[in-house]
């Protein structure tokens, strides 16, 4: 059998998962792809550092030049994360005719265009299943299995940290700070959780999914982003009373040739499949014109689930090398579609307001909404304390700009104490 030598860049959590999977099932991989996969080099910052995997001393190196100058290394597996030096290494690898497997969502969301142009020019594979939703197969289905469809919508829970936090807040009534602390104690959240709780991680992932689904380049900068730090337990409780569940969603749609891409908390009907995705699990809901509705569910992160996706890509690239068909799955962003501004988005809204409790207040607020084309589906007074009433409002579908304009006026009224929260409502 032919020997295919690979190099792994990075030996952190995911890198160690990749090594473990490759080492534990060598005969299986040999039978599945018709070649021996040999880990020839692993690039690390500190070769002397002890790790949970066993590798020969001559395999571990701190020198990139040993890898890029070795003509026998056919596949570069990039699991180091971040933009640099990962971008430089991947670009140099492709320029040298080496195939690349990456789990780097940041790199793809920011520099996908140049990476795919380089891989296409070189006739090399660039595979990235692990970049979105960990071990859940979603990249390959969008690129191949669902290719017969015009994809209309991709909507999903693509960040396990925030889903775990919202689950604890919903099921146990925990505050945001306590739920975040629990997530950090269990290893679901980083010491600095900003990328997760502010929605940036999910935004990078939805940019990648939108690019694949709608065949147009969507970058991180094109995605509207809002995190979960303003969500309070009472919002989750009120949502449940109204028949909804709150999730941090990545949403991408195409309508009339325009693409929208956004990440924010949303109320979804409790009957929706995504409403029953709890804890650190991820799920991606896809609607196509031929297939209808499908959902992909599973572990969205972790050493072994993400390692599983990376190794799956390695095996596919090995098969392509064996058949002389690398570069077969090139960039699918062959269109240049317009983006719908966030202000033009049409959706329903949940509002929680604190106002002075006296006659005529509700009529005044309803009048301002009406003047801006905002129709109210329901208004409920939930509490009244010290002369302050708490109103919970659900609107009919309305344009984002219109409700924001109305709220600017309502916020300045003497009867308004606080607009405590605004959460969009997604029902389709």
From TrEMBL:
Per the UniProt record, which EC number(s) apply here? 1.1.1.3
List GO BP terms, alphabetically: methionine biosynthetic process; threonine biosynthetic process
What are the residue boundaries of the ACT domain, all occurrences included? 350-424
* Reactions accelerated catalytically: L-homoserine + NADP(+) = L-aspartate 4-semialdehyde + NADPH + H(+)
The source's domain of life comes to Bacteria
Segments forming a coiled coil: none
Keyword Disulfide bond annotated: no
Q: Provide the alphabetized UniProt keywords.
A: Amino-acid biosynthesis, Metal-binding, Methionine biosynthesis, NAD, NADP, Oxidoreductase, Sodium, Threonine biosynthesis
- In this chain, L-homoserine is annotated as bound at 190
InterPro entries named in the record: ACT-like_dom_sf, ACT_dom, Asp/hSer_DH_NAD-bd, HDH, HDH_cat, HDH_CS, NAD(P)-bd_dom_sf
**Functional pathway:** Amino-acid biosynthesis; L-threonine biosynthesis; L-threonine from L-aspartate: step 3/5; Amino-acid biosynthesis; L-methionine biosynthesis via de novo pathway; L-homoserine from L-aspartate: step 3/3
Question: What is this protein called in UniProt?
Answer: Homoserine dehydrogenase
Source organism of the structure: Thermanaerosceptrum fracticalcis
């Amino acid at each position: 059998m032919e020997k295919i030598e690979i190099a792994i860049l990075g030996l952190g959590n995911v890198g160690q998962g990749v090594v473990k999977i490759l080492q534990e099932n060598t005969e299986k991989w040999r039978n599945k792809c018709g070649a021996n996969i040999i880990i020839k080099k692993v690039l690390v910052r500190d070769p002397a550092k002890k790790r949970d995997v066993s590798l020969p001393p001559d395999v571990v190196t701190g020198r990139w030049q040993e890898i890029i100058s070795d003509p026998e290394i056919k596949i570069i597996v990039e699991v180091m994360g971040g933009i640099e030096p990962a971008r430089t290494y991947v670009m140099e690898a492709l320029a040298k005719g080496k195939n690349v497997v990456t789990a780097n969502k940041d790199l793809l969301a920011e520099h996908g265009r140049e990476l795919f142009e380089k891989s296409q020019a070189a006739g090399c594979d660039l595979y990235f299943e692990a970049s979105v939703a960990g071990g859940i197969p979603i990249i390959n289905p969008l690129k191949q299995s669902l290719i017969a469809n015009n994809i209309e919508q991709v909507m999903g829970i693509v960040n396990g940290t925030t889903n775990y936090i919202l689950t604890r807040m919903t099921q146990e009534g925990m505050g945001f700070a306590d739920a975040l602390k629990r997530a950090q104690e269990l290893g679901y959240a980083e010491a600095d959780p900003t990328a997760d709780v502010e929605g940036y991680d999910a935004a990078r992932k939805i940019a990648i999914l939108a690019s694949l689904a709608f065949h147009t380049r969507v970058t991180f900068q094109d995605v509207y982003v809002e995190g979960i730090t303003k969500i309070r337990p009472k919002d989750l409780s009120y949502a449940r009373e109204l028949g909804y569940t709150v999730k941090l969603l990545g949403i991408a749609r195409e309508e009339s040739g325009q693409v929208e891409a956004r990440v924010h908390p949303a109320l979804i009907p409790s009957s929706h499949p995504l409403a029953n995705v709890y804890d650190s699990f991820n799920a991606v809901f896809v609607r196509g014109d031929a297939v209808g509705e499908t959902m992909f569910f599973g572990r969205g992160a972790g050493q072994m689930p993400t390692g599983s996706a990376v190794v799956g890509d390695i095996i596919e690239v090995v098969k392509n090398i064996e058949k002389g068909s690398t570069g077969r799955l090139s960039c699918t962003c062959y269109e240049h579609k317009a983006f719908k501004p966030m202000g033009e988005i049409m959706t329903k809204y949940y509002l929680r307001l604190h106002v002075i409790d006296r006659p005529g207040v509700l009529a005044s607020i309803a009048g301002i909404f009406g003047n801006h084309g905002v129709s109210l589906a329901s208004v409920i007074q939930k509490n009244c304390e010290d002369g302050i009433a708490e109103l919970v409002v659900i609107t009919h579908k309305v344009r984002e700009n219109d409700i924001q304009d109305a709220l600017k006026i309502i916020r300045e009224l003497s009867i308004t104490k606080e607009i405590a929260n605004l959460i969009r409502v997604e029902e389709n």
